[in-house]
């Protein structure tokens, strides 16, 4: 069972779910559709810059290994 270790210390109640369907139903009843997207913007602001740096390093490493040429060559 899933338990919340934060809520009891903050005056809330312990949350327990028997299965994933109970969890989804609980979120739906408490917050509606918004509950499923809560924190998406903050998480995206964390992940997008990380992925930009990753792809820049990947592309520069790829160019360094191939001698500056693209790995895709036109065939005619």
Q: What is the share of helical residues?
A: 55-70%
Sheet-strand content, in percent, reads 5-15%
Supply the number of structural domains: 2
Biggest sheet strand order reads: 1-2
N/C terminus separation? 60 Å
The Cα radius of gyration reads: 23 Å
Transmembrane segments: 20-41, 47-65
Membrane topology: Multi-pass membrane protein
Family: Belongs to the mitochondrial carrier (TC 2.A.29) family.
Pfam families: Mito_carr (PF00153)
Written description of the protein model:
By secondary structure, the chain is mainly α. It folds into two domains: 1-37, no CATH class; 39-76. It has three helices and two strands; from the N terminus they run ββααα. It has helices at 20-31, 34-37, 40-65; strands at residues 2-3, 16-17. It has a two-stranded antiparallel sheet. It is elongated, with a radius of gyration of 23 Å. It starts with a strand and ends in an 11-residue tail after the last helix. The model has no long low-confidence stretch (mean pLDDT 80). It holds the Pfam family Mito_carr. Keywords: Membrane, Transmembrane, Transmembrane helix, Transport. Belongs to the mitochondrial carrier (TC 2.A.29) family. It is found in: Membrane. InterPro entries: MCP_dom_sf, MCP_transmembrane.
Give the gist of this structure.
This protein has 3 helices and 2 strands, in the order ββααα. It is mainly alpha-helical.
Summarize the helices and strands and which ones pair or pack.
Blueprint: E1 2-3, E2 16-17, H1 20-31, H2 34-37, H3 40-65
